[in-house]
Specification:
The protein has 165 residues and is α+β, with helices and mostly antiparallel strands. The chain is built from seven helices and four strands; from the N terminus they run H-H-H-H-E-E-H-H-E-E-H. The radius of gyration is 19 Å and the shape is globular. The strands form two sheets. Strands 1-2 form a two-stranded antiparallel sheet. The chain has a two-stranded antiparallel ribbon with strand order 3-4. Helix 2 crosses helix 4.
């Protein structure tokens, strides 16, 4: 990347706390917060399921959900099972759904550099099975939404997976 001429002297300016990347990192400040977002993309909605699937403590998940709710990333939706009190499920808001490219970018990078050629999951276009990739582009291209993506267990992991393939 190159800076425009008026920004070329890096010592003459600073964006400090105005940096969007820094603000996103403040928002997604812990592994638990990010994993709650991951689980929302994977369809998890209930508190106990977040705790189980993430493997974090209930207080840590509670703090993460409060942080994401305050930031407008998730919204509570009341549900009631017969014979039980009303409880909240958590669903991604539009702002939360817009984290999809961030989420997929991190997974894509991790698959390439941290999984030794054996990423556990693949993300494909639901209708065609074509791989979903995040790319930087200057041209407008069609965007995929969560509804357009199917998550598949990669064949190399199927052999080692403890669940039902």
């Amino acid at each position: 990347m190159e800076f425009e001429e008026r920004l070329s002297d890096r010592d003459a300016w600073s964006i400090g706390d105005g940096c969007s990347a820094g603000r996103v990192l403040d928002l997604l400040s812990t592994k638990t917060v990010f994993l709650v977002v991951r689980e929302c993309f994977y369809g998890t909605t209930r508190f106990d399921d977040f705790v189980t699937r993430i493997g974090a403590s209930a207080p840590a998940v509670s703090r993460a959900l409060k942080q994401l709710k305050a930031a407008g990333i998730v919204a509570p939706v009341v549900y009631r099972e017969p014979g039980s009190r009303a409880r909240d499920e958590y669903r991604l808001t539009e702002a939360g759904e817009d984290l999809l490219p961030v989420f997929l970018s991190l997974i894509q990078w991790g698959d390439t550099y941290l999984q030794e050629g054996r990423p556990p999951l693949s993300f494909v276009e639901a209708g065609t099975g074509r791989p979903i990739r995040v790319r930087v582009t200057a041209e407008p291209t069609p965007e995929a939404t969560c509804d357009d993506i199917e998550i598949r267990l990669n064949p190399a992991w199927r052999r080692d997976w403890q669940g039902s393939p």
